[in-house]
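Students often ask why we bother encoding 3D structure as a string. The short answer is that it lets us treat folding as translation between two languages. Here is a chain of 99 residues written in the first language.
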Amino acid sequence: AKCQCKIAPRERKNCGHPGISAADCRKAGCCFNASVPGVPWCFTAKPKKVKKVCPADPRIRVNCGYPGITAKECTSRKCCFRAHPAGVPWCFYHRTVEE
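And here it is in the second language, the structure alphabet:
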């Protein structure tokens, strides 16, 4: 993502060899910006920012418990708990999403 390549030129960490093309740099999963002389043009991207969320859609819940599990037992497993609707897991795993 473009936001992962917004790095101050002096903070860039080299990710390619001298003379690497923009295409080869990007194929390697790196960022390319040749607008600032004297700093790496092919450089490592910032790590993706992710967070764990409890999915809102009950149809995509992945079971983390068993029938009749209590909210306390579910949260002690570090899972989400919502006692509704019927017919879907009430104790379920978080999903990881990009911020």
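Translate back mentally: The mean pLDDT is 93. Keep this in mind for the problem set.
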